[in-house]
C-alpha cells in the first residue's frame, strides 16, 4: 500500500520508491553538492547507482523509513529527503516528517548528523525546532579526511 502525506499545495511525501523512479533518482542524485554533504552517496551518480539504491531499499528491514519527495501535480520524484535545498522545500518536508514520526509512529527522539560545512542543513533543522547538542569531532571519514559532524536532536515534547 502506498501512503502519501501532503506537505502543502505543491509537494507530497510518499513511502513509495519504485524502478520507475530510477531516471529521477539518477538525475537529482548526480550532483556534486549532494555528494559533498552526504556520507555514502557516490559521484558521479548514475542510473546503475539508482538501481542499487532501490534494490537496497527493497531488501532493507527499515525501508518504511525511506521517503520520496514528489511534485503533487505530476507525482514526479524530486528528492529522497535531502536531494533538494535552498528553496524552502526541506524545511516544509522535515516539519511534516517530524510530526508523523512523533505523533503517528511513536518516536520520542529524532537525531540528525550534519557536516560542519553544511550550514544550510543546520538552519533547516533549527527552523524546525531541532537543538544542537554538540559537535562529534572527527566522527566520520569523508573524501580521505576525518571530519566533524554536528549532532542535532528534537524530542517529542519539543514539537
Automatic annotation (TrEMBL):
Give the GO molecular function terms.
acyltransferase activity, transferring groups other than amino-acyl groups
Could you tell me the superkingdom of the organism this chain comes from?
Answer: Eukaryota
Q: Which Gene3D superfamilies match?
A: 3.40.630.30
Task: Print the keywords alphabetically.
Answer: Acyltransferase, Transferase
Please state every residue range assigned to the domain named N-acetyltransferase: 12-158
Q: Name one Pfam family in it.
A: Acetyltransf_4
Similarity remark? Belongs to the acetyltransferase family. RimJ subfamily.
Task: Write the protein's name.
Answer: N-acetyltransferase domain-containing protein
* Species of origin: Didymodactylos carnosus
Amino acid at each position: 500500500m502506498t501512503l502519501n502525506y501532503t506537505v502543502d499545495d505543491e509537494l507530497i511525501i510518499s513511502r513509495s520508491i519504485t524502478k520507475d523512479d530510477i531516471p529521477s533518482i539518477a538525475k537529482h542524485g548526480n550532483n556534486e553538492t549532494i555528494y559533498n554533504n552526504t556520507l555514502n552517496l557516490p559521484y558521479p551518480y548514475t542510473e546503475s547507482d539508482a538501481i542499487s539504491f532501490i534494490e537496497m531499499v527493497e531488501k532493507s528491514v527499515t525501508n518504511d523509513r525511506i521517503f520520496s519527495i514528489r511534485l503533487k501535480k505530476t507525482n514526479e520524484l524530486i528528492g529522497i529527503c535531502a536531494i533538494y535545498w535552498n528553496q524552502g522545500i526541506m524545511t516544509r518536508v522535515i516539519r511534516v516528517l517530524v510530526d508523523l514520526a512523533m505523533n503517528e509512529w511513536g518516536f520520542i527522539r529524532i537525531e540528525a548528523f550534519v557536516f560542519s560545512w553544511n550550514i544550510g542543513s543546520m538552519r533547516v533543522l533549527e527552523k524546525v525546532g531541532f537543538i544542537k547538542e554538540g559537535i562529534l569531532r572527527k566522527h566520520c571519514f569523508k573524501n580521505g579526511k576525518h571530519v566533524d559532524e554536528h549532532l542535532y536532536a528534537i524530542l517529542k515534547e519539543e514539537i
